[in-house]
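Feature request, filed as a ticket because there's no other form

It would be nice if the structure record came with a short human-readable summary line next to the tokens. Right now we just get the raw output. Example of a typical job, pasted below so the devs can see what we mean:
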Amino acid sequence: MTDTPHEPTDDYRPATPDDKDWTWVLTRRCDECGFAGTDVAGPDVAATIHDLVPRWRAALNRLDVRERPEPGTWSALEYGAHVRDVHRVFEERLRLMLEEDAPQFPNWDQDATAVAERYDLQDPGRVADELADAAAALAARFATVRPDQWDRPGLRSNGSSFTVATLGGYFLHDVVHHLHDVRA
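Raw output as currently delivered:
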């Protein structure tokens, strides 16, 4: 999809920040999207990442890609840019977990990133391609995980503890949940 550039407007308003701690999806099903972090076994995470990319491409190719359903809710484009960046952040977190002992992940403020990077102005076709590339990189990294590495730990900056396996489930929930958000 080609798209004409959109100029920043003075009336741009960021989406309402999401300050929920979503780690509960590792122990129970999400009432909104129906996914649980335990739905996909660790060795199947890489294939599932690949399987979700076409749904994001379709969402980012819609004519209403820039339209917010409500003023405080991201558009499909903004969600797509976020999910692209989620893939990138989790690829780095997984790398740390596989290469270091119990690393603490750098903090990532998704809402500040959305504003600073002006997700709303990005080209949907480019976001789709970058999301696919980031998904391929993360899937490739998950494909390298050996059986003895699925329990390796890592810590989020707020103290939430993950294993490689739970990181995969937590990540997949984020991607699936946002597909639900954009109805894709």
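Something like this underneath would help us a lot:
The chain is about 45% helix and 5% strand.
The chain has one domain: 39-181.
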